[in-house]
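Protein record
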Amino acid sequence: MTTPWILGLTGGIGSGKSAAAEHFSTLGIHTVDADQVARWVVEPGRPALEQIAHRFGVDILLPDGRLDRPALRARIFSAPDERRWLEQLLHPLIRQETIRMLGEATSPYAILVSPLLIESGQIQMTQRVLVIDAPEALQLERAIRRDQASEAQIRAIIAAQLARDERLRQADDVIVNNDGLAHLNEQVERLHRFYLTLQGGKHA
């Protein structure tokens, strides 16, 4: 059996990357979500959580033993050394777990879904990159509705993410998601048919 090649799927907040990934999944494609992996490595019982509690104290945990994410974010936000320590602990674990999960794929290609695919260096794990793109006004509208957040909060997230032009420059394929779910799904299916013809993510 040939090893599945890896497609990196990314896009800014509110672009619709999760909806696209979901549709690829219904087409039988193995998908791994980097955000879910990042949450999983700090679940109770995982070694990383013990080290975090040891470093920051048990008040970084919720009463049920799970990580208090807002508290941790607040602690590292203004402390670059602590943030670096946390990244050095978590990034190798996330990478290792992501590779393991992608390795379980039996579909012709597998997808790594990550909002920080390019910035985090996860792009190096992929053979091809698909960017889900949307006009900024639409990103704002969707993200505000979905996250019940203010426009200022969403604008701050957009500003902190990779510039749209740079993301598009790294893309092998782009889906412009500006016309509802049916249109998005059609474009996913069109690319899926194309991807099935590729060897290692490239033209044979």
Observations:
- The mean pLDDT is 91.
- The beta strands are 5-10, 30-33, 109-113, 128-133, 173-176.
